[in-house]
Design goal:
heterodimer, A: alpha+beta, Gyrase A, domain 2, 3 domains, 9 helices, 19 strands, B: six-stranded antiparallel β-sheet
Chain lengths: 367, 126
Amino acid sequence: MEIKKTSLNKLHQDNNAKFVEFAGYEMPIQYSKGIIEEHKFTRSHSGIFDVSHMGQLFIYGDETLTEELEKIFPLDLKNLKQNCSKYSFLMNEDAGIYDDLIITKIKEGYLIILNAACKDKDFEILFNLLGSKFKMNLDNKRSLIAIQGPKSVEILNSIISGVDNLNFMTGNWFDSDNQKLFVTRSGYTGEDGFEISISNEKAEKFVENLIKKGAQLIGLGARDTLRLEAGLCLYGHELDINKTPVEANLRWAISKSRLSSGGFIGSKKIMNQMQDGASQIRVGIKPEGRLIAREKTKIFDDTDTQIGEITSGTFGPSVNGPIAMGYVNKEFSKVDTKILLEVRGKKHPANVCALPFYKKNYVKGVN
Amino acid sequence: MSEVKFSKEHEWITLEGDVATIGITKHATEMLGDIVFAELPEKGSNVEKDGTAGVVESTKAASDVYTPVSGEVVDTNQTIVDDPSKINEDPEGSAWFFKLKMKDQSEMDSLMNKEEYDKFAKESAN
């Protein structure tokens, strides 16, 4: 299959990107400055991320659509205000996660942002569940640009006036350069920031403008170290079809009202696990010293019994040390529990720790 | 000191008397990206030509370090263990990895000179 390119591919090339294949797309892993500098620049200034490979699914409809979506997602969508976003999951009957996503209620219906590797399958699943009652558009004519970091609000507001009024996890349509952009205040770095949905033809010029204002392009490498420091899950690593939201320690994302009523796909399993607890749970892990424990590293207790596995592990540039996330048996999930990580045949000490590794307050807006 | 020689695994080596100093090349560090972890062989241990003799990790991945010649490890560079970013800063100078007392200096003969290595590195990058 031919590798796909986003509308910013040429701009990445012009900025000396090193490319990797990610979910069928040629994407920049880093630019000339390297992952650590890109990471730190995002934390101190403003980083631009091309996330156009992700799916932008528009589903058009009114209250009936809300009712149908409540049978799928563990959310109180009826009481969700227009232009407000929620983090959620598409699950199977066993509460196994097909994908994690951000769903926003818009005037016309809903906008759902999906992972690149899952988007086509998600569309199929949702189409089969919703039938042809509602118009669905997995829009590949729009690019998706994230801008993240403390200076992002100032930079973006100088191009799209009014975005500074958005609260965290809300969005709206804005007019800029004779076209409609959908902007949400959200992100995947632990920093304040925005995601901008923009037509493919206008994307390059828009990003060039952001660069002129002082933001810099950041690759997927730093995106990964940033999200891991922020304790955020990456589909295919922390989340997959064999993990449930309760096991992934994401029960906060399930609306309380839906926990008593149920009636969404996977609700029985979720309610059972909420009551009895899951046997394994996602935790933060800090290796002692400088040792990096990568994905698939086995976790042991002090009696040589395997008690879990690492799902993501790297060096955290802002933490200035190794960090990881993984699943452990629930009796080992308490903060400060001593565990052992097997790396290159030797066992190394580590501690279960609270997430996130790097804490910064999201801006709640000016209101 | 001898001429700098290079291996296909992107190590450099110089010889002074029968003691070889070994590190990884600038080209290797450019391919790896930011190095954030280094593990070196133990002093006093014996390593075999083309065998593993350490590990470097970037933010992205772990890579083995190989030794281009056999010998006994007589010294290791602790400064790169304490601050692995030094490897990116000066890979072919102060950020050497370990020193070996060589048994068989003819092992140097099969290694590449600078010109040959630069050509090899350029070709293997494409």
